[in-house]
Amino acid sequence: MQVLIIGSGYVGLVAAAGFADSGHRVIGVDVDASKVEKLQKGISPIYEPGLDELLQKYQASGSLRFTLDLNEGIANTDAAFICVGTPQGEDGSADLQYVLSVAKEIGKAMALRPKDAPPLIIVDKSTVPVGTAARVHATIAAQTDRAFEVVSNPEFLREGCAIDDFLFPDRVVIGCRTDFAESIMKGLYEKKLAAAQARNSEAGKWFRMDPPSSELTKYAANAMLALRISFINEIANLCETVGADIDFVKAGIGSDHRIGKYFLNPGPGFGGSCFPKDLQALLKVGRENGHPLMTLATTVEANRHQKQVLALKVREYFDCKPGTPAPLAGKRFALWGLAFKAHTDDIREAMALELIESLTSLGAQMVVHDFEAMPAVRAKIGDRVIYAEDPLIACEGADALIIATEWPQYQKTDLQRVASKLKGKVMFDGRNLFRPEAMKQLGWTYHSIGRLPVLA
Ligand SMILES: NC(=O)c1ccc[n+]([C@@H]2O[C@H](COP(=O)([O-])OP(=O)(O)OC[C@H]3O[C@@H](n4cnc5c(N)ncnc54)[C@H](O)[C@@H]3O)[C@@H](O)[C@H]2O)c1
Fold first, then answer.
1. Most buried of 93, 212, 321, 410, CB within 10 angstroms?
2. 325 and 190 share one domain
3. Residue 350 pLDDT greater than 90, yes or no
4. Which range marks the domain in which residue 283 is found?
């Protein structure tokens, strides 16, 4: 089959590479000329493990190419995927301007299709609120009399393991109205579903539903995951106060099959390109429809608090008195991890950025390190912080080490060498990478989330 993927970001690139991997002919489109130029040279504009190899492999074989021109290939295309951003609008709702502008462009390009061509399947893969498939349909219909159907196919990949998630999906959700649309979508995904089932009989599930249900499924999934994170974060904070240990509590509740063990890791609050904006968009949909989503509102509020927890621990330890100007002046902190999570260079809504803002505004100097996200942070905040090419260099002369992202390399770093660089053995670990008892034996003052602090 031939597929057009419009939008070459985290989702579009993974989908383009993933469909090429299933033997389809793929044309990737983007409006960003520098991105397309890089891609045509075989260079990925984003960091995603395994992506470069697939992009290079299928561009070399001729089954994948990138262009700025959406008209290219539309005449023979079976499905056109809309994978552009849906950022948060000023009122919290999903800003659909990019989706609808692509819909209009597709509508115009439809004139290039023969009058007797089978209906073009236009797929909303961007995360969009209920009713968007209908809006996309109306936008295209205003431009063309050629046959088409709009399908909702939300994406569930996780940055950092996006290739694996796309090649071996837990499930594929399709919101469509006709058997024809379903058959095209099945043709595109059948190899992936089979591969996922071969690996795990519980995976590779196919769900056909109506477009509104499919659109809501994506938001409900993200909301449920965010809710679990905020819940365990609140329980972790309570653990610290009552003298309990979140690791034990987590193991105790996660072994209940009704609860499950996933997404129960306490941390410094969730960020990223999806949860924060998708929660706001769903809250807006709830309000507009007279169903305020109260659990979700609380989830957002709890996360706002959680994103301050590490900074609060630092302020408390260094005895920052309220009302003192620049109470952290003269203090230097090493910060490990800038991306919103490990294995990505994505810093959208990253907790580390809020931490930098909090501590530098109190006068602290920050020396930061990340394995992939430093260029993005440098582009965003410039020389507000010092950038260290190596985690150990970041620690030189620092009063404490703060960990914001769970890159596994940090966990493997030799703590004695880290201690030799720091002024004192003080660590604020937002990802619970180490056990408090072990840190105590090594003589660290160790603060983590949901366990009692260890004081050297
Ligand atoms: N990133 C994720 O982990 C993830 C996971 C699931 C779903 N989603 C959803 O997928 C969508 C895309 O997310 P992303 O992270 O890939 O975004 P992104 O910002 O990385 O990429 C969007 C791309 O679309 C391009 N674009 C914008 N207007 C265009 C146009 N008119 N024609 C062609 N290209 C255009 C941009 O230049 C950019 O390269 C969003 O709705 C997001 O919520 C993202």
1. 410
2. no
3. yes
4. 219-305
